[in-house]
Amino acid sequence: MTNLKKRISNSNHRLAWHIQPPTGLLNDPNGFSYFNHEWHLFYQYYPYGPVHGLKSWYHVTSKDLIHWESHGIALYPDTPYDSQGVYSGSALPLNDRNLLIMYTGNVRDQAGHRQSYQNYALMSAKGTITKERHNPIIQRPDNVTEHFRDPQLIQTEHGYYALLGAQRRRDLSGQINVFKSTNLHHWENLGFLNFTDIRMGYMIECPNLIQVDGQPLLIFCPQGLSQKDLAYDNNYPNTYLIGNHADLDQANFDAVGHQLTLLDEGFDCYATQVLKTPDGRALAITWVGLPDMHYPTDKEGWSNCLSMVKELHIKNGKLYQMPLVALSQLRQNHQHHVKTMMANTSQALIGSNSYELQLTISADQQGQLKLMTNQEGKLGLTLKFDTKSGQLTVQRQCFTQTSTEQRTVSLTSNKTLKLRIFVDHSLVEIFVNNGERVFTQRVFVAPEQTLIKLVSTQQLTYNSDYWDLQSTV
Ligand code: FRU
C-alpha cells in the first residue's frame, strides 16, 4: 500500500480540487446528503488497484461542497448480506442524530450466483456507522432477476419511497422498481415505474428522481439501450427525462412531450446522483468514468474521479447544469481579453492546467479552441465551433495517442456561443451556453502541455476571462 501511494503521488494526472481515490478505483457517488451541518458524500471504492474488486463505501465531508475532507472507508463488505461488495445506494437524514443509509449488498452464493440485498446502515452525528440487524430490508420481487440494485431513498409528505434499478424477469428489460414505506420497516412493492414506452435496454442502474424548479426530473443509466432510441457514443449512457408530473403512489412518471436525453455530451459520465438541499436547490454529482473502461492512470494504480458538484435548473422545458457559485473562491490571477483576431492567425495563453476559462464567441464565427496543447501542436482536447451552423465538436486525443475521437452537438444556429471550461490536470468540464449542454471527460497529456490556443481562418471576435484555480488538497 505504501508503495502504491508513493507511485500515485508522482502522477501528473492527480487532480487539484476534485474528489479522487487515494489509491485504487473509485466509481459511483453514493449517499450524497446534508446531515449534521455538513455535506456528506460516499463513493464506491476498491483500494488495492484500478479494478472493480470488492467494493466498500469511502466517506468524505465538506462545509462548502468545494473543500472535501477524507474519512476513509465507512462501509465494508463484512456481513452475509454484502459479502461480495457494498454496492451503490443513498442516504436520508432522519433527524440531527441519524443518517439512514440504504445500499445494495452484493453476494455470490456457493454456486457463484449473484444475490442482491437491499440493506440499511445508520450513521450517528459522530460518524459511527452501524448496519441494521434485520438486513435485508426489501425483498426482491419474483418478477425481477438478481439484477436489482442502487436504491434511492426519497421522503415526501406521503411517506418514504425507494427507487431501485431492476431487470424484469419476463423479458430481461431494464426497469425502475418503486417501493413505499410509512415507517421505514415495512416496504410495499408498488411495481415498475411507468415512465416510457421505449425499451430501456437490459438493465437500469442508478435511478434518481428529484424535483427541479417545480418539475420532476428522472436521471438513470439504461444499459443496452438501442441506438435507435437515443444516439449515444459512450458504451453506457447516463440519461434523463423531464416529467410533467410524478405520482409515486401510482408508480407513474408522466413524461409526455419530453424526450429521453443524454445528461452529458462528453466521453466519461455515469451513475450521477442527486440531492435536494435544505434550501430547496437540486444538486448533482457524477462519476467521471464508465463501466468496462480502462484509463491511462491504471498503470499508476488508481482510476477515476468525481465531477464537480453541479446545480440543476429547468427553464422552458430544458435542463441546465451549472457550476456552484462558491467555486469562484478558488479563482486567482485573473486575465481578461476582448479581441478581434485577424484571419489565419492564432492567440495563445499559457495555462496552469488548473484553471477556469470563459470564452464568448459572437454569432457567425468559426474556429478551434485547443486546450492542453503545446507549441509543437501536440493534442489534448480541441473544441471546433461554428456559431453560424450551431455545430460544436469536442475532439479528444485517444488514450493510445494514435488517433482522436469526437462528440458533436447541434446548438441554436446564428447565436453567440458561451463556453465555461474547467481544467483540472486530467479532467475537463465544459459548460455550454449557461449549462444547456455539458461535456465531461478525462484528458491525459504530458505535463508541459498547458497551452490554450484559439485558431481561426476567419476574423474572430471574442472575449475571454481566465483564472488559475487554487488546489484544495
Ligand atoms: C454502476 C454500478 C451499480 C453498482 C455499483 C457497483 O456503476 O454497477 O449498479 O451498485 O456500480 O460498484
UniProtKB/TrEMBL annotation:
Highest taxon listed in the record's lineage: Bacteria
Query: In the record, what terms sit under GO molecular function?
Result: beta-fructofuranosidase activity
The pathway to which it is assigned is: Glycan biosynthesis; sucrose metabolism
Q: Which protein is depicted?
A: Sucrose-6-phosphate hydrolase
Show the Pfam families listed in the entry.
Glyco_hydro_32C, Glyco_hydro_32N
Where's the Glycosyl hydrolase family 32 C-terminal domain? 327-458
Entry annotated with the keyword Hydrolase: yes
**Family note:** Belongs to the glycosyl hydrolase 32 family.
